[in-house]
Specification:
globular, single chain
Length: 262
């Protein structure tokens, strides 16, 4: 009976090398598939937010205010409420019970709102975000910000976006067209995002994914760009390569820019 032949050291090394090559080829594909799934989930979050904004407008005949009573920087007196659009939107995201737990006559960080503010809402969390579903200063996170305007082409004064401070806007205020105007976009790299805190509005100042850490801007952890939702509730991936003039244009509601594609 013939003897069974064992692997030689050279053959074993060849097998290990082949396995290593196969793994190196497979892992990027697995990683890309997972990121595609995460980006799809993020897109669905923004689609829900866009539909909720439309539902809010239908019920109120105006869009949610970006921030009510915003405080000056470093003001912790609590005299201003600084409540965000994302808190007012809750009933239109099937979160009526949570909405009723918030005392909107008090500040976002008032003791009366502490328990409600600590709720983590999956619709406000991008799965690609490195922060993930963790509390920020004891409050639920948000990876999405309202568009207050842009300062790429000129100062944002008066504010040019759809999410303003203490000012209600409706469809008629969006003369650039609701399909051409961004209202909410990813801001997941900003460390201080909280869904109840009205600091989650911003005027775009840098290229997508290019703002410094301290800035509130369109940023994500998706490769190549970030996701945003327009006033008409359609969702687009905004690439890092978008022309700066086009980026500025989609952040304004009444800039009079020609319709642009990207």
């Amino acid at each position: 009976m013939p003897k069974s032949r064992a692997f030689t050291l050279v053959e074993l090394l060849v097998v290990i090398a082949v396995i290593g090559v196969l793994v190196s080829l497979t892992l990027p594909a697995i990683s890309a598939t997972r990121e595609a799934a995460r980006r799809n989930s993020c897109t669905n979050n923004l689609r829900q937010i866009g539909i909720a904004i439309q539902s809010y407008h239908q019920a109120k005949e105006y869009f949610p205010v970006g921030c009510v009573e915003r405080r000056p920087w470093n003001d912790s007196s609590g005299t201003k409420r600084q409540i965000a659009w994302s808190a007012f939107l809750l009933p239109h995201l099937d979160e009526q019970n949570l909405h009723e737990q918030i005392d909107f006559s008090k500040a976002f960080d008032a003791e009366e709102n502490k328990r409600a503010a600590a709720i983590i809402l999956p619709v406000y969390v991008c799965p690609t975000s490195t922060r993930g579903p963790t509390l920020v200063k004891g409050r639920g996170p948000i990876d999405y910000g309202g568009i207050y305007g842009e300062r790429i082409t000129s100062p944002n004064s008066p504010a040019k976006g759809m999410m303003l401070i203490d000012t209600r806007l409706d469809v008629d205020d969006c003369s650039d067209g609701i399909s051409n105007t961004l209202i909410v976009a990813e801001d997941s790299a900003w460390p201080d995002g909280q869904w109840i805190n009205g600091l989650n509005i911003f005027d775009q100042a840098f290229a997508v994914n290019d703002a410094p850490a301290f800035e509130n801007d369109i940023r994500s952890f998706h490769p190549g760009g970030a996701v945003g939702v327009f006033v008409d509730s359609h969702v687009r991936f905004i690439p890092e390569s978008i022309d700066s003039a086009v980026l500025a244009a989609i952040c304004t509601r009444a800039g009079g820019e020609a319709k642009t594609q990207f």
